[in-house]
Amino acid sequence: MSNSEKGKCPVMHGGNTEVKESVMSWWPNALNLDILHQHDTKTNPLGKDFNYHEELKKLDVEALKKDLHDLMTDSQDWWPADWGHYGGLMIRMAWHAAGSYRISDGRGGGGTGNQRFAPLNSWPDNVSLDKARRLLWPIKKKYGNKVSWADLIILAGTIAYESMGLKTFGFAFGREDIWGPEKDVYWGAEKEWLAPSDERYEDVSKPSTMENPLAAVQMGLIYVNPEGVNGKQDPLKTALQVRETFRRMAMNDEETVALTAGGHTVGKTHGNGDASILGPVPEAAPVEAQGMGWANPTRTGVGRDTVTSGLEGAWTTNPTKWDNGFFEMLFNHEWESRKSPAGANQWEPVSIKEEDKPVDVEDIKTRHNPMMTDADMAMKMDPIYREISLKFMNDFDYFSDTFARAWFKLTHRDLGPKDRYYGPDVPKEDLIWQDPIPKGNKDYNVDAVKTKIAASGLSISDMVSTAWDSARTFRGSDYRGGANGARIRLAPQKDWEGNEPKRLSKVLSVLEPIASEFGISIADTIVLAGNVGVEKAIKNTGMNVSVPFSPGRGDATDAMTDAESFEPLEPLADGYRNWLKKDYVVSPEELMLDCTQLMGLTAPEMTALVGGMRVMGTNYGGTKHGVLTDKEGALTNDFFVNLTDMANYWKPTNGNYEICDRKTGKAKWTATKIDLVFGSNSILRAYAEVYAQDDSKEKFVKDFVKAWTKVMNADRYDLS
Fold it and tell me: In the prediction, which pLDDT does 5 show?
């Protein structure tokens, strides 16, 4: 049938339309609340009652591990294993899942199984990982919901190392799958894959100027360009990018060298062909490809003809064995720049004995030159990396242990505290990057403590603000932060500008003796004080509603706190307390949405909390912006009533706004853009109007209490 014969489309377009065809594309500056819809559970095919941890109890872990061990050497005809061993492929799959993590916002990583979805499933750096996941499918099918894709992907990489001879540090189950792309993750503003690094930096020669929250140097890469900065070989410049990229993943120099060398001790790169002729990526492939991409139309496209990164070759003589071959190869040879068959820049030995070359992946009688990337050469040429590398080369046991620990950190960093770990191989050792917190006292008279706090002289604002500041650091992206541990009293949090250090110190000086008197944690006492403040504010409306409380939080110490790693959790803005550290390119309301999503809150919960925080007078520094009530300190719905009251009008004044009486023109209140967005944005206004209704006073209080309790308990994994 010709196009002219097909006639007009009988249905409304939408399934294959571009993002720009969205109904909101007419208004590109409108506040987009999609980031808050990530918590919608309607897309989960397992249903709201599905409990992954309960399913894990049914898992035969040893049988699963045996199946994975067997898989490593069970080469499949449709995608044969290099040297008959899938270890390198499985490690790369797990590595590229976990390696997308960044400490700036805790997003990325292997904790959600996000590699199954766009854009990660189609990144240039992830070529052929679709094949790795398909090789795992029979095992996933067998064990079903008793193991998530997220856990299986990371476990496969860990088992791969074990099968090659590494004594691993441990493994924990507990990662729950998502069911669609993570719309909340910003991967960069570039419009093309592998756009020049310059687009991410103020100055590409100064890696620290890379745009936050990004960690990878180019769109579509996990770390750095293996050919060098913008594809130009210069190991010393590459070393600077490697250091910054791994720092943004929470890795120090020793961990960086261990991971680089350990990752390249096994497996190989693939570039024995023309990468430009590969077919569409998985997300763009035709339906008959069934979700797999990068089809190679020449030769076999597999084995020795595989093309992924474009570089070609193994790093070591024995690429299916855990040994010290990487360092021995790197330091025992001189290296020169050469081109791979695919035309990529790589390093190869000036001379090498035939028996030291790795054998062909299909024919053990044929040997090929090993290769090194620019990042590998950085391990030899950068003075700091070189010293560490030589230490590892001369102490294989130390290298193996350091790598095993670094691999565990890489693959578990975004899983959160140990309370979220499950399985027989969870290490007993507490690691500082896990943000350890001792168990707190659960057996005490909560009402007696509340009575003491209520009589302490602290204001509603002080109690509520301190509890909020302690809890708001929680981020569901990597399960860090939160009120448990009371790290708000430790460095660096006690000195954060957003925590009002002087006010905080005053409040803590009152609460700490109370905690000591009752033998309970300061963490519990801070949250209890916040609850006391909320309950007082409710009583000031004439209602009597109790705020739920669960005792048992513990107090972390300085020794349990990696202060440097907590710096990225410092708030730059807090729309809930109407505070902005300084003007940013990103608008205050967008910063509020980002914070809200990280805390795991929905748009209605955000609306209720902001309205309640305003009328209780919790603004930073005691400002009156947005306190749209004459009864400050009472948990009324006045914020919404007066925001939506058409007896008023709104006008800009000195960077903020005045809410004025239409008849007299007199200013009643002042407000910020954050306040007014709840009346200007059509979705947020719909929520605000619900709370402004005459019959919603009690609903508002109950909704506020529910959302408040959710924030206070966000990091209480012992409760779930």
Answer: 46
Residue 37: what pLDDT? 80
pLDDT at residue 301, rounded to an integer: 85
The DSSP symbol for 15 reads S
Closest CA to 101 of 184, 162, 39, 185: 185
Maximal CA-CA distance, the chain: 94
Note the Cα 559 to chain centre separation in Å. Answer: 25
Would you state the structure tokens that stand for residue 95, as one six-digit string? 């590595």
- Count the Cβ atoms, other than its own, within 10 Å of residue 513: 13
State the SS3 of 575-636: HHHCEECCCCCCCHHHHHHHHHHHHCCCHHHHHHHHHHHHHCCCCHHHCCCCCCCCCCCCCC
- For residues 679 and 643, give the distance between their C-alpha atoms in angstroms, rounded to a whole number: 6
Using alpha carbons, list the distances in angstroms from residue 321 to 94, 315, 326. Answer: 18, 12, 11
Contact 711, 601 (CB under 8 A): yes
pLDDT confidence of residue 40 = 64
Structure tokens at 29: 């500056």
Whether pTM exceeds 0.85: yes
C-alpha pair distances (Å), 662 with each of 125, 476, 630, 654: 59, 44, 18, 20
The whole-number pLDDT of residue 11 equals: 47
Instruction: In whole angstroms, give the CA distance from residue 374 to residue 376.
Output: 5
SS3 per-residue string spanning 56-98: HCCCCHHHHHHHHHHHHCCCECCECCHHHCCHHHHHHHHHHHH
Q: 């350091």: which residue's tokens?
A: 402
CA distance 174 to 186: 25
Structure tokens at 514: 């109370």
CB 570, CB 498: distance < 8 Å: yes
pLDDT at 645: 97
129 backbone dihedrals φ, ψ, rounded to 5°: -70, -20
3-state SS track over 438-485: CCCCCCCCHHHHHHHHHCCCCCHHHHHHHHHHHHCCCECCCCECCCCE
Which residues are known catalytic residues?
96
- Give Cα separations from 113 to 13, 30, 549, 639 (angstroms): 30, 31, 33, 41
pLDDT per 10-residue tile (average), the chain, 720 residues: 48 46 75 81 87 97 98 96 98 98 97 97 97 98 98 98 98 96 91 92 96 96 96 97 97 98 98 90 96 88 90 98 98 98 96 98 96 98 98 98 98 96 97 97 98 98 98 97 98 98 98 98 98 98 97 98 95 97 93 96 97 98 98 98 97 96 97 97 97 98 98 92
φ/ψ region of 650 (left if φ > 0, alpha if ψ in -120 to 50, else beta) reads beta
pLDDT of residue 601: 96
**Bridge partners for 121 per DSSP:** none
> What residue has token string 């910020």?
672
